[in-house]
Amino acid sequence: xxxxxxxxxTGASSxxxxxxxxxxxxxxxxxxxASRSKEKLNSLHNELRKLGHKSHVIPCDIRIEDEVNDLYxxxxxxxxxxxxxxxxxxxxxxxxNKMSIEDWDEQISTNLRSSFLTTRLFVKKMIEKKExxxxxxxxxxxxxxxxxxxxxxxxxxxxxxxGFADSLRTELREHNIKVISVYxxxxxxxxxxxxxxxxxxxxxxxxxxxxxxxxxxxxxxNSSVIEDVVVRRTKGDF
Length: 238
Description:
This protein is α/β, with parallel strands linked by helices. The chain has a single domain, classed as 3-Layer(aba) Sandwich (Rossmann fold), CATH 3.40.50.720. The chain is 42% helix and 18% strand. It is built from 6 helices and 7 strands; from the N terminus they run E-H-E-H-E-H-E-H-E-H-E-H-E. A 7-stranded parallel beta sheet has the order 3-2-1-4-5-6-7, sandwiched between helices. Strand 1 (3-10), helix 1 and strand 2 (30-34) form a beta-alpha-beta unit. Helix 1 (15-26) packs across helix 6 (207-218), helix 3 runs parallel beside helix 4 (101-129) and helix 4 (101-129) runs parallel beside helix 5 (152-172). The protein is globular, with a radius of gyration of 17 Å. It starts with a strand and ends in a 7-residue tail after the last strand.
């Protein structure tokens, strides 16, 4: 038997991905949890199972084509994945003259290339069935790059993700496939653990609030689609 509400979440082991996985399970969805950390995924899976929810753990480095292919094959055996939430992302910040090629490539690969790798596979069945959704967790940096300094690689990857989603949306309209981009401001997650910031983390957005917003976008009824969602603090960005 296949699931009618099967959703894939990348970067599900922490932060926004973890919270949206919890929210979706609470709302009755069956969730495929994907990230590089098998230990963290198992911890979340066990938490969800104890609450009576249904989830599946598929460890995957979404930067690597062979691993994404494996993720697709294993996910397909569980049923029709009618929603893919491309959430995995990283940020490494420094001035352009100090930015290493390795750090540049890692951000482009994780924040942009990975969405291409997942989308090109999971879209096939959606086109066949004439239904489905792709959600791209972007950043306000993907809309307002001029507001960010020492962030060239991060901003470039997020602007690229915006362009990818915008073009994809136009391409997939005829197939009744929804494309949703979410642009959060600063969210208090482990994303910031290794980043020296001069603003209080307790004033950032919460990942649970972002998860609620993402869920409402996914749950938009019938032929309607919430295409772009910008979520910022009421007081504005730091």
